[in-house]
Amino acid sequence: MDPNDAPVLGLRETKKRETRQMISDHATRLFIEHGFEHTTIAEIADAARVAKKTVTNYFPHKEDLALDHQDEFVAALAATVTSRGPGETPLTALRHAFLAAVAAHDPVAGFAGRPFARMIADSPTLTSCLRGLHDRREEALTAALAESTDTPPDDITPRTAATLLGGVHRVLFTRIQELTLAGRTRAQVAEVLAREAPRAFDLLTPALAEYGRRGPDRPQAVTGDAS
To answer: What is the predicted pLDDT for the residue at 221?
Structure first.
C-alpha cells in the first residue's frame, strides 16, 4: 500500500466518526424534545441533513440512536474483572470501579442527566432495551468470571456470582436514575451513591469475599484493546 494513502484513510475514519456523532446528537435532541416513540428515522435524517439510509447504516436499530454506548455498557463489568490485579477479588475490583465511576459522574454508570433519564423512563421500548442490556452485561460477566477462575461457563458458580454482582449494579443504576428524575444534580446523586453503594456491596461480602481471588501465580489477562 502506498504510504500516502494512510492519511486519507485516517481522514475518512475521522469523518465517519464525526458523522456518526452528529447523527446521534440530533437523534438524542429529538428524542428528548418529542419522545423516543414519536420520533421517526426520517425526522432524524432531516435534522442531520443526511439520507435515511445513512442513519440506518450507522445505527441499524432505532434504539441504537438513543443508547449509543451499548457495547461499552455491556462489556464494563467483564473488563473490570478481567483486568483486576493480583490478589484482588472480582467483588473488590467491581466495588472500586463503581465508586470511581460515581466520583467521575460517568454516563455509562447512569449519570446522563435528567432529560436523558426521562427519555428512557417515558419509553417502553427503551426501558425494555435497557433491561436487555443489563442481562447481556451479566452474561458477559459470567463468561469473564468463568475464564478467570478456570470454571466452565455453564457451571452454577460463575453464573450465580455474576447474577449477584450484576444485580447490585442494576439496583445502583436504577437508584441513580431515580435520584436524577427527582431533580438531584449529578454532584448530589454522587454524594448519595458514595454512601449507599458500599452498603450494597457489603451485602455480598459474606458470599463473595474470597471468590475469584487472583493468586500471584496467575497473571493479569491481556485484552486485545489497550485503550
So the answer is: 40
